[in-house]
Amino acid sequence: MKKLLTFALAATTMVGALAQDFPSRPITIVVPFAAGGPTDTVARQLAEAMRPHLGNASIVVENAAGAGGTIGAGRVARAAPDGHTLLVWHIGMASTASLYRRLPFNALQDFEYLGIINDVPMTLVGKPQLPANTYRDFENHIRANAGRLNLAHAGLGSASHICGLMWQHAMGLQQAMTTIPFGGTAPAMTALMGGQVDVMCDQTTNTTSQIEAGRIKAFAVTTAQRLNNHPSLRYYPTLQEMGLRNFNLTIWHGLYAPRGTPPAVAQRLNAAMRAALRDPTFIQRQNALGALVATDNRITPEGHRAFVTGQINQLRTVIEAAGQFAD
Ligand code: MLT
To answer: 195 Cβ partners below 8 Å, 6+ apart?
Structure first.
């Protein structure tokens, strides 16, 4: 009995020490899309807000774009489970689970879930030359020219792809638009502003400043309610107001570590993330871009995992309805 107690004590001390010694070197957050885009923006703002809660350790954001985010996610799934390599990813964790027949990871088995960060509305936007200024004009233009227009996105399973899929499906478009994939919506935005692509559905974290600067046109938001709290986005109608019943899409982002990361380290990371979500500067920066910082039980590892499990099932229906799969 005495031996058992000594062992238990030693084990507890070791786990405590493990969390205390963490981090022991710079932390890398992998963003599975190009730099400058919506996921990159969330990861960089979060890294800054988490640092003071991790002994001011340096947190580096690395971009590993491609295949709708599955390349970067696969890299973290294979990384050493010591808490020094993390992933910030969004709805893609759920959509790719049914969209891709083969994936270099399993969404529910290969990651520790560290919590949901935020929810980001999307906007339907167009190149500045598009001959439309209201959603109705835009819809009529799309219906009249669908086969001749293209839709930019960040790869199969990305938020911009899923939104494009759901919107065209809800519109009942007979002829789908040509879709053009990019390594993220940052490069897609450059092409849109330059008029090389026609239309995109993208997160407000990437569109707000371009809309406010008049560099792109905006037509609607994808949320159930108007963004009444936002100084410029509140003027745009919802797709539901425009007749697309029940259309409601926001993009959630989560923080992940490789499966097998010690529980004490995962708890430390979750605690630092939750402290960051309460940081007034982080909240203000997110709100300015139309994002809502998470406050519900999805900020817990259990709540996060339960939520994503539900999203995987929900999105499977959407994807199967659209009948588009990635080999
Ligand atoms: C990005 O960061 O580029 C986006 O999240 C892309 C997307 O999923 O649409």
So the answer is: 127, 128, 129
Query: What number of residues does the chain have?
Result: 327
User: Is residue 184 within 6 Å of ligand 1 at its C-beta?
Assistant: yes
Contact 212, 230 (CB under 8 A): no
Tell me how far apart the alpha carbons of residues 178 and 229 are, in angstroms, rounded to a whole number. 34
Q: Between vectors from CA 91 to CA 189 and to CA 178, what angle results, nearest 5°?
A: 45
Distance 158 CA to ligand 1 centre (A): 6
The total of other beta-carbon atoms located within 10 Å of residue 174's CB is 9
Q: How far is 110 from 76, CA to CA, in rounded Å? A: 9
The string of pLDDT tens digits covering residues 80-116 is: 999 999 999 999 999 999 889 889 999 999 999 999 9
Determine the residue of 61, 117, 122, 158 to mutate for testing ligand 1's pocket, defined as the one with the most ligand atoms within 8 A of the Cβ atom.
Answer: 158
CA of 203 to the centre of ligand 1 (A): 8
Per-residue HEC secondary structure of 131-199 comes to CCCCHHHHHHHHHHHHHHCEEEECCCCCHHHHHHHHHHHHHCCCCCCEEEECCCHHHHHHHHHCCCCCE
Helix ranges, 34-103 (H): 38-50, 70-77, 92-99
The answer to whether the bond into 262 is cis (omega within 30° of 0) is: no
CA distance 322 to 98: 12
pLDDT in tens, 263-283: 999 999 999 999 999 999 999
Query: Smallest Cα–Cα separation from 115: which of 287, 278, 253?
Result: 253
Q: Which residues fall within 8 angstroms of residue 140, CB to CB, at 6 or more apart?
A: 132
